[in-house]
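To: structure subgroup
Subject: Chain for Friday's discussion

All,

I'm putting the inputs and outputs inline so they're searchable in the archive.
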Amino acid sequence: MRKAPRGMVAHALAGLWLGLVLMSGPAMADRAGDVERLITALRFDDTIKIMRQEGMRYGGEVGLEMLSEGERGRWSEVVAGVYDGAVMRAQVKEGFVAALDGVDPAPLVAFFEGQGREIVALELAARKSLLDPEIETAAQALYDQMAKDGDALVERVEVFIDDSDLIERNVTGALNANLVFYTGLADGGALDLPQEEMLADIWAQEEDMRAQTGTWLRSFLVMAYQPLARDKLEAYIALYQSPAGRDLNRALFAAYDSMYEDLSYKLGFAVAIHMLGEDL
């Protein structure tokens, strides 16, 4: 706990603090407005809608794998409750704003309200398309053929992946989400497993998860950026190589990873409750 200064020092500090408050008020408001503009330009709402669709599909698969036919009654309603779009958006926005604390959003706003607008649209369209298993298979085949042909886009995608550490960040997030899924199962009474065994089982999935993540990422990025003019792609790569881009990358992973962990815990807990035949 800080001790309050006394005497003339207190008056001087009070005057300085008042000056800082008066000067920072409009600046803080401008910054908050810029962060909100960035959230809009990055189209968080559209991203969450797609992630909710992905989650609904995944939750359905979990139910088929882990619940008996009798236990799956109302399961789709439960999954819909876990993947609540409004809650997801609020969690991501809160985490993103917190992770951007101390970061000047202005250059990011300028980029994504300008030429980045097309890039975000292409990424969203590709991700939504990949909800279709047949399109996902076709996208993987497209990447394989482009890699075999030595297409320049493949090399630029690799640069983008490496610069932003996309595979490792995604794998780490997925492993953490799996751990909290197990924790949800355990807290719900459906799993009696020491944490060391949970961790061992999760780490055993790492190699396969890394391979799957790499395949999906490469297919997704090639599909998204194939229609993009190369100068715009280079500008995008340069952005993520800059301090502002690295701050953005860190903030996005912090926000979305936190949301995924919360969803994974809720899903694991819901599975456990259904296994025990109880109502949520």
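Points worth raising on Friday:
The longest helix spans residues 7-41.
The CA atoms of residues 183 and 195 lie 9 Å apart.

D.
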